[in-house]
Amino acid sequence: MSPVFVPPPSPDRALTRAQKQALLAMRRDAEVEAAALADATGMKPNGAALALRGLERRGLVARQEGEPAVWSVTFAGHALAERLSNGN
Q1: Are 68 and 61 in contact (CB under 8 A)?
Q2: Domains within the chain, CATH numbers bracketed
């Protein structure tokens, strides 16, 4: 069976507030679980998981397999987090 093509999200589409909070909070840690991210940012656990999935689709974070799942920031995610923290 051939893989299903999923087009990448539009780069013009802005990050949500939750995605920005998650990305800025994650740049300090090597790996983070959704529950720990929710505690650090004040988000609800489901909101943190949705923000992480959205960042993963954009290639800004990578999910590490395992239970519980953990995410880490990619180089592109670090660069965007730096830009966001500088107000650009």
Answers
A1: no
A2: 17-85 (1.10.10.10)
